[in-house]
What we know:
This protein has six helices and 32 strands. With 367 residues, it is an alpha/beta fold. The model has no long low-confidence stretch (mean pLDDT 89).
Amino acid sequence: MAKGMILAAGQGTRVRPLTKDWPKPMVPILGKPVMAYLIEHLVRYGITDIMVNVAYHHKKIEEYFGDGRRWGANIGYSYEGICDHGDILPRPKGSAGGMKAIQDFSGFFDETTLVICGDAIVDLDIGAALFEHKSKGALASVVTLEVPNDQVQNYGIVVADDDGKIESFQEKPKPAEARSNLASTGIYIFEPQVLDLVPSGVEFDIGSQLFPLMAEKGFPFYAQSRFFNWIDIGRVTDYWSVLQRVLRGEVAEMDMPGKEIMPGVWVGPNVSINWDSSKIVGPVYIGSSVRIEPGCSVIGPAWIGHGSHLRQGAKVIRSVLFEYTRIGEGMEFSEMIVSPRYCVDRAGDTTYVGDDRCKLRWGDARG
Length: 367
């Protein structure tokens, strides 16, 4: 049907501290990496031969996904970096440069290829997208979403004619200057000939270099305007929003784990919860081996990672607790992402454990 390419070599600096310990595609959604949902979605549409370019924390991606057989896929990796005096240093080649390196090495991209960023949640009808691409005889297609005019400055904007043929691009234009409201989602469909336009051995970007070149030369290059869920985790605040939407059941094919023991409340095995004196209002997922002491409140949408511990009277409101997070007695965490070492509020401001300026108390439940 088609091959797949997952772009996973980025550093994810705008999502720190979440990417301090993980590469961006490994950031968890309900305890499962973002990229796992993408692979499941690709396989669902028959895309099983998948290449992934990696750089930062590359071992964590490779060790988790392996050869892909768990997902019914055949996954390979292309590492982008160097060994300098015994140190392994990431050196990303750019989104197009990374694909060109794979093509030069093996000729892997010998048929239509769906290219997707490894840090977004999508429920795109891939079959329909591929059909439109082929029916138009496109050399490349960009999947777009219409966004409100007052939000165009947050996106790369695609300008196309009435037939969808791409004329130009605008990078985060001001609303008054925007010539379109079609935002590029970072989902592309390529024919093999596209990579002939990419120079070998240099850093080269799809959006800022390859696509303007294709538009300038007038190649059969089209935008597809589709309606689907596309949740890009570009910033920490996006991550909080993603989890809120997932917990509310707004994203297709993302089922809650665990067992639903009351409406909107799912739990994993081996939990210790004082149900009589605790207030739990869904949608909430409580992972395995979580302990919730008397007098606690968990108000959803909320996710309590496995091994976490809420001490007596603690309140967790519309928040995310990563695995093994302990919330201090009587503490209230509202609209936050909390790990054993740091917490991030909805605005993206980070506080670390031990900061005397912070009145909140939390830590590692394993301590």
